[in-house]
Design a protein that fits this description.
Helix content: 40-55%
Distance between the termini: 54 Å
Number of strands: 4
Low-confidence stretches: none
Order of helices and strands: HHHHHEEEE
Shape: elongated
Oligomer: single chain
Largest sheet: 2 strands, antiparallel
Mean pLDDT: 90
Length: 112
């Protein structure tokens, strides 16, 4: 709704609010999860559709995606591998990811 109000107020208002609106869009896409992060990544290279401010802000999704909770990741690992406990396979697993991306994250670990 805010973008529509900006357009009704004129191009100066659109330009003035573009950085804040772009940041809000990035935050919304991030909160909606991996599929929407991918949409944001794809849009970030579409300068024919979006202004440079939006493209630059969404480009942050290319290499600066916040990690999801480690408990959730470890539960997924346990379930996907059919384990009772993650320690059945890993002697050691870092408590937090060392890297994260739109569709996954990386942990440092040692197998049993």
């Amino acid at each position: 709704a805010g973008v529509l109000l900006d357009y009704q107020s004129g191009p100066e208002k659109v330009a003035a609010n573009a950085p804040a609106r772009a940041k809000t869009l990035k935050e919304i896409l991030t909160s909606l999860g991996p599929t929407f992060i991918k949409v944001g990544q794809a849009l970030s290279i579409r300068s024919d559709l979006l202004s440079p401010v939006y493209c630059e802000t969404l480009a942050e999704l290319q290499d600066a995606v916040p990690p999801f909770p480690s408990d959730e990741a470890k539960a997924t690992i346990t379930e996907e591998l059919g384990l009772r406990d993650i320690s059945d396979v890993f002697r050691e697993l870092s408590p937090e990811p060392i890297a994260s991306a739109s569709l996954g994250q990386v942990y440092r670990g040692h197998l049993q």
